[in-house]
């Protein structure tokens, strides 16, 4: 019965329209739209990867080998199960150009192919021609970025290793590019047969071989995958099929999308503050209505249900608006987004992300509206007649407090499930909650300080009026500081993390990183290689190590993936080396290194940090598949390995007798003065054409480009939080317009000029903005430090440019919002305002 009466009252209240709820709807809609939009774009990419999985992979299925080609037995099986088969190799090399006695070089990611390539899709060239024609003889095609950098045009000649090639066309698009993952250099494509004698595919060289297959109609991928595993698992064969054509990209998109959704939740939390403030302001205006209902016998339940239903209906409207924006905007801008993406995306309505965003919106609305609604229920009618909600208890009844905490737990749990990263979600939720608590306490402190300093500014009316307004009971200092401060906190944290990452990569890393990585150095080339470098005064250090790659297939006799899950060490092939003795920079922290002349069963020294993550102990065994051969080694020591300085670092080091018989090459890092780097490269490349040089500064630039794109995406997410905070400011300013109108009328009557009153309004806004900026800066710096210290495990320094920008942004935002609603109060005539007040 009471619910039916409440529903009737709520329906009548809704007849008044949306007055007072525009900011409420905007905050909720914007937060939901941000989450729905990010989710929709992620779903579009994931669907594109699924639908175009075969094209991205280059076939219906693929098997891959490291450092070798398929054996006759493996090739026979591949021929039997496939309708067509294509062999592709992938490796790094140097493009060498000779011009009038000068030599120029550039790093490239080479793809060598056979006549069957590509099995699916089309290679787009400029000038247009079939890829088979472009690769005839010693023809080659090259990505435009590399050709432009080296000044190559169609018809020019260049070398790969010792082999000469002619540029036949510019490579505009390769259908399987997204499936190949990250490469340090732009692409060059040649025929595999044309590389004979180049020294680039010699035994032990670093290359991957991929066999792409189109399968007969009706072929069962699960059956074929299991058959390949059963027959060739011990040879190091890696299977992939069109159901996951670009796994690295899919994983990256999923992780980045989940992180952006968490950023979106921060924005929704900011919007929640605005929602809560709007509900409080609305209930304050309904004082007489609620008092009348209570006087006529309405119970607490009826009062609560009436406004709960009304706010619930408006919340659903805001969520629907947000879902419409988040679902439709990606479709409208789909062509532009798709053109900017290097991978396919299918932009349509995706119900999953919309349902996720709707759930977030409902839970957020409940969490932030339950408290003010519950407080209104507890207020006596007489108190409402006098002073709106100020007479209500500071905390609601215990049942509502318990319900709020339960809803908050459900919200965090939902985010943990959808994000797929429990720890990241908990850290994000903890950071948001901590920021809300700190900002709420800070808002109270600011009001207290304003009241205290009001007495200290006698004789300065503008300052006195501003401080009195900030510290007064009717001023919206809480909403301003909390909403703007939370949005700025997210932006400040993102700015500090981004600045520190960029600093670590572009400034600090080159100071401790080597000048060059050299790979594919053959064993018989090592004496001449070292002789050139060790006699150069500009070279301060040379580190070299034998290099093989292998897969950790078993841990203590059990499948490695079952034991270690998705840990990066067992996810793919890893670099492996051998050493008779530890060098001077190796620190063994547990166990013992093998004797220098040890020739017994294989032993392994494992990186200590990764061993702890995998749960490994001394005496455990690892089975490594290297070049198709299984080697089972016992862990006899753990050692510290530093991967943060871009030097040589191996998770696994074996005793020499375990690996020396396998074909392999060497890698080396060279630390030299920057002025000498070019000459070192020329001398080594001329003497050893097969060697590939990776300039660390170029690799850093490549990583920085990727980081810039990620940072931009994160900033947009943080910007949505800040925009929501600005909307809350507008709502707070609009809600206080009547109070400022009365204040202006009184001050005019007492002789204050319009300029003085406007200055007072601007000063109070600037004070609140500066306070919110300073507090949020502290929260952002703390969050940035935590991420850099605990997650990135690197040093943290305050990025002052970003820090100052946050404070200035806070001041400008409150000034704009405050002054936007200051002109109308100033324009009102005092007589009409004061007469109406009576």
From TrEMBL:
Its main location: membrane. The lineage of its organism: Bacteria, Pseudomonadati, Pseudomonadota, Alphaproteobacteria, Rhodobacterales. One of its GO terms (cellular component) is plasma membrane. The keyword Oxidoreductase does not apply. The chain crosses the membrane at residues 259-283, 304-337, 357-376, 397-418, 424-450, 761-785, 797-823. It is found in: Cell membrane. This is FtsX-like permease family protein. Keywords: Cell membrane, Membrane, Transmembrane, Transmembrane helix. The keyword Membrane applies. It is a multi-pass membrane protein. It comes from the Bacteria. Residues 25-229 form the MacB-like periplasmic core domain. PANTHER family: INNER MEMBRANE PROTEIN (PTHR30287:SF1), MEMBRANE COMPONENT OF PREDICTED ABC SUPERFAMILY METABOLITE UPTAKE TRANSPORTER (PTHR30287). Residues 263-375, 720-825 form the ABC3 transporter permease C-terminal domain. Pfam families: FtsX, MacB_PCD. InterPro entries: ABC3_permease_C, MacB_PCD, Membrane_comp_ABC_pdt.
